[in-house]
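On clarity, I found the account of how folds are encoded harder to follow than it need be. What matters is that the chain and its backbone geometry are given together, residue for residue. For the editor and my fellow referees, an illustration may be useful. For illustration, here is how one protein appears when written out as sequence plus structure tokens:

___
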Amino acid sequence: MASCRRDAGQGPNGGDLIGPNPTDRAKNGTKKSVLVERNGGPLAIVIAAANKNDISLLAATLDAVVVDRPRPTAAAPHHLCLDLGYANKTGRTVAAAREYQVHFSRTRAERTAEHPWQPPRRWVVERTLAWLSKCRALLIRWDKHAANYLALLTLACALLWYRRYHRLNASTPVLR
């Protein structure tokens, strides 16, 4: 799943990779584009100015995956769930070039007609972005250089994976 979010806060010093936020009275901000696995573990993160279009970050986000993926086969294809904002020729072309089978989110009417009890899959990405926002250094971008801010985001993603690994292994009994 891929998603983008615009930061509400921007440090007073400015910096690179910032731009006027189209949803927040043109205040300067940064956009985070995150690719997560099924359970919300972050696989890739990319930052850009807040006024950059989400579809233009899709290729960079898919190329920024930090783990080697196995080659997709007909029996085990790689799935990519995207918002309807990516449901155009550019989004399909970028995903197909990287051998993903694309699924787009349904509209609210389609969701309630098919499965009224299932929430949209976007909450997995939003939850991961909320976990990243729990890190106080990332809540407001105080870093002037985009490379420093991206390094802090990457460190926070590694911390999320460490916590998930520790939590999953602590629940399994140790056999002696």
Observations:
- The chain has one domain: 2-170.
